[in-house]
TrEMBL record:
InterPro entries: Leu-rich_rpt (IPR001611), Leu-rich_rpt_typical-subtyp (IPR003591), LRR_dom_sf (IPR032675), TIR_dom (IPR000157), Toll_tir_struct_dom_sf (IPR035897). Gene3D superfamilies: Ribonuclease Inhibitor, Toll/interleukin-1 receptor homology (TIR) domain. SMART domains: LRR_SD22, LRR_TYP, TIR. One of its GO terms (molecular function) is signaling receptor activity. This is Toll-like receptor 21. Residues 790-937 form the TIR domain. It comes from the Eukaryota. The chain crosses the membrane at residues 739-763. GO terms for biological process: antibacterial humoral response; inflammatory response; innate immune response; toll-like receptor signaling pathway. Residues 1-23 form the signal peptide. PANTHER family: TOLL-LIKE RECEPTOR, TOLL-LIKE RECEPTOR 12. Coiled coil: none annotated.
Length: 977
């Protein structure tokens, strides 16, 4: 690991400190996405030691959940490194022992949950540092007693839950909480308390006390012991006599539950509890006599909000059963009785202002017709759930015209009369789910003008007929999931002009009918088509079925039966620019077209888990337009690689799940392209523990920006006992510090030297290269033959733009008019099929002279430059007078300044200037030009030095008369030094 770190540091220095995206992980916890290091979940881990579970968590942690683990002990100082914790869950573990200083230094902790464990005892000082603890949950443990003084330092405690233990001593509990001035709720249900006897008083702040399902035989408490309690639950204490309440002050009770405990009527006669605040569920009021007696007692209150008669065993009802009761202003609950019918609610004819009736879990088999309207104009909520209703007759709710909520779900309704819902013009929510309905008709919902939510899930509907929802103009939620719908008739969805959420999952659709969406194309936001039979047989579809759904934000297409979507057409999602979530889970799609998601520019969530057949089908560019995507799920796709070309455009991606794939390696370039990545899950992948993953290993272990989920549990495929995070990388690297320094220095030196050499020696090296090639191919010997064996008298180097002058002037004057020179011209004499460079080298060395016809175009030609360079090397290196310069046009000194080799030639040799038309006598000047050129070609090629040249009497100036007015006194018009 040290060598790897050294290597990375050296590379960083050498390459300019390139910053990569970073990663981190925790041994047994997962940071909750977007929590910024504040919330962590340690769930279903195998560790039995608390320290191993939370090791490495940062001090910034505020919320910590440790559940469903085999950990059995919380040792002292377990959380000292997490001093900022405010919410700690330790429920559903195997905890047996909590040591004395287990929660030391958790001064900011507000909520502690240790429910569903095996804790049998607590140390009296275990909570001493929890000064800000507000909620404490110890449900479902084995506590037998509460130690004295255990809550002495927990002065801010407001909620204490001790239900489902084996507590027997209420006095000790009361004494422990008596000083808690902020305690408002105490839950002691499901214990073994036999009385409430206590020498200590309950705190005045305590307003809610639950003592249900104990073994209370008596209360045994003082008159004022419960005087501040407002919510009191004594239910299921069957051995508690009513007289136990005779001397107890319950005057401030707002809710009292006595279910299956005392005889209720006897209790009301001897207690001072406000009778209208008592819950009468489960109090055995099962006949008319008892109910009328109850009403007589309730008359004392003059009014009552809610009357709960749940679970009383009432079998029948009479019309005057509640005649003697005071006005019920809110709700009546008749659930869990043995009622077979409520008729048309005539027994409530004296309760005309009641707003809600709940009659669930009874034995209703049908709802009769109630044609007389106007009895219950104030009734708004009616629930008949969990009954045995088979049929709903016409006008069944005509007597409740102002209903807003009607629950008929979870019955066995097979027949719903066409006019069963007649008159419900103010209904807003209708629940008909989980029944046996097969048909809906065009007048079933004709009066439900204000309906906003219609739930028909899990019935047996096969067809939606024309006009079924024609009058539901205000409907926003329609749930038809879990039926057997195969098709919808052309106007079956007419009228749903406000529909926002449409659920069609779990039906038998084989295709998506584009014509059905037109009515709500501007309002629909959610479309659920999961678990249908939709499939596509070709990659191109003529028209996207979602094209006009401009506001659709949530689309579910996952789990198509039996074999998935088969093909995902490239324009299937055309026009869905507002889509935020797309679900394609569990579809066997063999290929994803690179442009299939192109229109989903607003997409934020995409799940493809268990969807595709392999990574070969994730082509480069498939996610190129998903720049707003924040979460991508690619679980179990059998992916084998992770490439930058596929994922580099996901610049906003924060969560990436790659679980259970066959990815063997991941390059840092691919991860570096995901700039916002903060959560990476690779559990179950096949990352190889080889040298190609050494950089990835270092990235996952040493960096701190991206959470790699359960990194320390990722194993090597070849050895499950070896972990990915620490597999040996020594064989991949040697100690390269010194070598990297030397190589870096060498690279810098070469980068500095090469440009200099390029400027100074470019043509020399190029010449040497071509000469070497000629020599290597055994041409060198032929090119170095003596002059008398040369094939040509002169090789003419010129630019193609000057070819007209060559043909009109040069050839006639050197090869014609009695001249015997033989010239080499590239367009005429170069060997076809041979490399151009080889032809040039052969021409230069196969000619006694090289004539360079220089013009501005000549200077810009690379081939002309090569030809003059080769000739100049013969001039300077071989000391052969082979180079003749002919200037076709005047060229300024500034234009020649960059041609160093040519300037050097001009300083050593004379050159010829073609007389221009502005000369005094062009004819005579041109004749002199040709004479001098012929003489220069005819001279020998052995170069003489400047001293020898001068010693033989040669002059650089001519005695010829000047004919061109632009020539200076020391320059000849045809021979210029």
């Amino acid at each position: 690991m040290g060598s790897l770190t050294h290597l990375l540091l050296s590379v960083t220095v050498a390459l300019g400190a390139v910053e990569l995206i970073s990663g981190y992980s925790f041994q047994n916890c997962i940071e909750v996405p977007f929590s910024r290091g504040k919330s962590f979940n340690c769930i279903r881990r195998k560790s039995k030691i608390m320290k191993d579970l939370i090791d490495g968590l940062p001090e910034t942690a505020i919320n910590l959940t440790i559940t469903v683990n085999p950990v059995w002990q919380v040792p002292k100082n377990s959380f000292v490194k997490l001093p900022n914790l405010q919410n700690l869950r330790l429920d559903q573990n195997k905890l047996r022992a909590i040591e004395q200083f287990a929660f030391q230094k958790l001064n900011h902790l507000k909520s502690l949950n240790m429910s569903v464990n095996n804790i049998s005892e607590l140390n009296s000082s275990v909570f001493q540092d929890l000064h800000n603890l507000t909620f404490l949950f110890l449900t479902n443990n084995r506590l037998k007693q509460i130690p004295e003084g255990i809550f002495s330092n927990v002065l801010n405690l407001r909620t204490l839950t001790l239900r489902q233990n084996v507590l027997m001593n209420f006095s000790g509990i009361a004494e422990s909480v008596s000083h808690l001035k902020h305690l408002t709720m105490l839950d002691l249900c499901f214990n073994n308390l036999t009385s409430l006897h206590s020498n200590a008083s309950l705190p005045k702040s305590l307003t809610t006390l639950y003592i249900c399902r104990n073994n209370l035989l008596t209360l045994g408490c003082k008159h004022s012991f419960l005087r501040f309690i407002q919510v009191l639950d004594f239910s299921y204490n069957s051995r508690l006599p009513a007289k136990a309440f005779q001397d107890v002050d319950l005057s401030r009770i707002n809710y009292l539950r006595l279910r299956s405990s005392v005889k209720i009527l006897e209790f009301l006669n001897i207690s001072n509890v406000p009778v209208n605040h008592v819950d009468f569920s489960g109090t055995s009021l099962n006949n008319d006599t008892l109910l009328m007696e109850l009403c007589r007692l309730l008359k004392k209150a003059k009014w009552i909000k809610d009357l709960n008669l749940d679970s009383n065993g009432i079998r029948n009802q009479t019309f005057d059963i509640l005649r003697y009761c005071p006005e019920i202003t809110r709700a009546l609950n008749l659930s869990r009785n043995n009622l077979k019918s409520l008729g048309c609610l005539k027994f409530l004819m004296w309760q005309t202002h009641i707003k809600g009736i709940t009659a669930e879990h009874n034995h209703f088999t049908s709802l009769p017709s109630c044609r007389k309207k106007g009895y219950f104009k104030d009734l708004e909520d009616l629930s008949y759930r969990y009954n045995r209703i088979l049929s709903v007759n016409s006008h069944a709710f005509f007597h409740t015209p102002n209903l807003k909520l009607l629950k008929l779900n979870i019955n066995t309704i097979a027949f719903l009369d066409r006019k069963a819902l007649k008159g419900l013009k103010k209904l807003e929510t209708l629940r008909l789910d989980n029944n046996l309905l097969t048909d809906l008709y065009n007048n079933t919902f004709e009066d439900l003008f204000n309906l906003q939510t219609l739930n028909l899930r899990n019935n047996r509907i096969a067809v939606i007929f024309n006009g079924t929802f024609l009058n539901l103009g205000n409907l926003t939620i329609l749930d038809l999931g879990g039926n057997k719908i195969t098709h919808i008739q052309p106007s079956g969805l007419e009228g749903l002009k406000s529909l926002s959420k449409f659920y069609l999952d779990g039906n038998n659709f084989k295709q998506i009918d584009t014509t059905l969406h037109s009515v709500f194309q501007d309002t629909l936001t959610t479309l659920d088509l999961q678990r249908n039979q939709i499939c596509f047989l070709k990659e191109d579809v003529s028209y996207s079925p979602f094209m006009n759904l401009s506001r659709l934000s949530d689309l579910k297409l996952d789990g198509q039966q039996p074999y998935g979507l088969n093909i995902l057409p490239r324009n299937l999602f055309r026009g869905l620019h507002s889509l935020k979530s797309l679900y394609l889970t569990n579809n066997e799609i063999p290929d994803l077209s690179p442009d299939v998601f192109d229109d989903l520019t607003g997409l934020k969530f995409l799940t493809l888990d268990n969807c595709c057949l392999g990574v070969a089908h994730l082509k480069p560019g498939v996610f190129k337009n998903l720049r707003n995507l924040t979460k991508l799920v690619l679980e179990n796709m059998r992916m084998q690689n992770f490439s930058e070309e596929v994922f580099r455009n996901l610049t906003q991606l924060s969560q990436l799940q790659l679980n259970h794939n066959a990815i063997q390696s991941i390059t840092l370039d691919a991860l570096d392209s995901l700039h916002k990545l903060s959560y990476l899950d690779m559990r179950g992948s096949s990352l190889s523990c080889t040298c190609k993953n050494t950089l990835l290993q270092n990235w996952t272990v040493n960096n701190t920006k991206v959470q790699v989920v359960y990194l320390y549990n990722l194993t090597c495929p070849h050895d499950p006992k070896q972990k990915f995070y620490n597999f040996h990388t020594n064989v991949c690297y040697i100690d390269l510090g010194e070598y990297l320094f030397l190589s870096t220095a060498l690279v810098i030196f070469l980068f500095t030297l090469i440009p200099v050499l390029y400027v100074k020696l470019y043509w020399r090296m190029k010449y040497s290269y071509y000469v070497f090639r000629s020599w290597f191919s055994e041409r060198w010997r032929r090119l170095r033959e003596e002059e008398e064996n040369c094939k040509y008298d002169a090789f003419v180097s010129y630019n193609s733009s000057d070819e007209q002058w060559i043909m009109d002037q040069l050839l006639p004057n050197l090869e014609g008019k009695g001249s015997s020179f033989k010239l080499c011209l590239h367009h005429r004499d170069f060997e076809p099929g041979r490399y151009i460079v080889d032809n040039i080298v052969s021409a230069v060395y196969g000619s006694r002279k090289t004539i360079c016809v220089v013009s501005k175009n000549f200077l810009r030609s690379e081939w002309c430059s090569l030809e003059i360079q080769l000739a100049s090397y013969r001039l300077f290196d071989e000391l052969r007078d082979v180079l003749l310069l002919v200037f076709l046009e005047p060229i300024s000194e500034r234009q020649l300044s960059s041609y160093h080799r040519m300037r050097k030639v001009m300083l050593k040799k004379t050159y010829l200037q073609w007389p221009g038309p502005d000369c005094i006598d062009p004819t005579q000047a041109q004749e002199l030009f040709w004479n001098q050129l012929r003489r220069a070609i005819g001279t020998g090629s052995r170069l003489e030095t400047e001293e020898n040249y001068m010693s033989k009497g040669h002059a650089t100036e001519s005695n010829e008369t000047e004919h061109c007015e632009t020539y200076t006194s020391d320059e000849n018009f045809y021979l210029l030094p």
